[in-house]
Fold:
Amino acid sequence: MTWLRRCGRRLRGAFSRFDDRAVRQEVDLHLDLLTEEFRDQGFSEVEARSRAERTFGNRTRAVELTRAVTTLPWLESLLNDVIYGARQLRRSPAVTILAVASLAVGIGANTAVFSIVDALVLRSLPVPAPDRLAALSLGDQDATRVDGSRWSYAFWKAFVPHHTQFDGVMAWSPVRVSASRDSTVQPVDGVFVNGGFFAALRLPVGLGRPLEQTDDRDGAPSVVVISHGYWQRQFGGAADVIGRTILVHETPFAVVGVTRPGFIGLDIGQAADIILPLSTEALVRGAQSFLRPPFDGMNMWLRIGVRLRSDQSLESGSAILRGLQPQLREASLPAGFPQLRETHLREPIGLISAANGLSRVRQLYRRPLNALMLVVGVVLLLACVNVANLLLAQATAREQELGVAVGARRVATSSRPPAPRGISAAHLRCTSSRPTCGALGGAGAGRAVFDAERPSDAGALTRLARARRHVHAWSDHHARLRDGGCTESQHGCSWKCAEQCRVPHDSLAANSGPGRALGNTDCTVADSSHCGEPIRRDVRAFDGGTPRIRSRCRAAGYGAGERPSGTATGAL
Amino acid sequence: MGETRGELLQGTLPLLILRTLSTGPNHGFGIAKRIGQISKAVLKIEQGSLYPALHRMELDGLIEADWDTTENNRRAKYYRLTRKGQRALAHEKSRWEAVAGAIATVLREA
Structure:
């Protein structure tokens, strides 16, 4: 149970991330008591404080490490990064809007085109082994091969006896019917199917039973299977829908089944909300029925499909059909059109795949669709490159903000530019209303982010030396400031903040190792974050106004090499 | 460095804290001061490192803490030993004595 309690405490700690007051209070008390002790030993107030700080070590680091014990540091730093990122975005709204807009256009276009491609080209019918489904098609030309041909009822009647050649045969024909329930008549997309349709497709139903051979006979009771969508829309998904009646063209049909969601028929783009047995076509169309002479041989209205056996391919299936062709044609020649006989016997019947359903639209637009998909893909890529460019430009513009963050962890310095919140933050803020050309210019303090954890690094040593010179100079300057009474009320700056960034002069002189020097400094990103925001402008002002400020500085008696602090602009 | 000043051995700080607290509740500064006093300033702990150790021990249930006021009326967090902490102290102490004794023997004999 201990680990459970531990996890709980850590999580709680992580979510109360701003609440490090308790730890700070402890540490503050410690420092105060230590200062008092040194003061009692006869040191001046300033000296006592700086000795206390040296004895204590890196204060911020202590607070951070202490908090790390009871929190999840990685979660916290992730949260910090997210917040930091959000701030960056808010700071440059133009860039943000541009980036979001280009990504939105790229992603939106891709989603739109892909959903069309998916529905039309990629998605298979929701039945087992859809790749074995094939539709009868006439001729070799593309125009007729696209979505299968249409056939007469007479042809279907001649074809049915040969169903044993395949794993199942089916005929269907989309039809728009007017259906009514409770005296409201609506046009509904329906489809006539043969009795073996469900069996050949292996199409399961979600409720009730599928249509069977016995339903597709003259004189059989009129029954219907409805789609899942129609069930939901018209019956509100009622569980007792089986057995209810729908009037289709004034003829009552009993609902026997509901399809599973996802099946919307074999013809893409044409819903099959009401699935009627083929034999009921006579009831719906009455005297003009396509099932009876003379229309049964003339009207080409049925699509015919087969389910290939596992040992059959489209080619071998087509070969079987070619063999059957003469007798099928002979049996189904429309009466009274002898001139059609020759073409009918000559045109070869073949099979096309119906794995994804049949669609004329798809066949017509497949190539343009693929091209379109490619184009929007490129658009998205360009959008990404665009955004990357924007960010790069922004990063370049921010380069000047890189500065010294003494005592901060290496990761903290590399993951975000700390300068405006580091030493320069407190410093610039404190000089804001004094006509002083501070020796340690904020951004000029050193672009070096040196590596506190690897003091052996020669480059780091050089950079450290440079930074230390700045710090020395600043320390003097800081003392001048304080002697001159840089207080909170005067400068609108938190004195505490400046205090935290103070680097005791002699500590730097006394200790030789860079690690030691760093250990005694006390300024990190986190520490002075409350001095953050307004500084940025100051840094910009400094960079932008250098020549003018320089000349004024010289006039005010500051020598070469001393760089004015940006915020002195207004006062100078 | 000519003086006999010891950087603390890894992992000995908790033992020192436990021992210090076994004489009664104390706050961070008091603990640091006592360790310094008793060891006659031989053991130099970087006082900042005291707090992570204290909080870890609190998390482990070795010590408990309450906010109270010092004699100068400042609010301070007072740590005190728990039962578990007392057991840990006894255990750690005997372990330390065994190790220190062994090392002393090696230094003497070898």
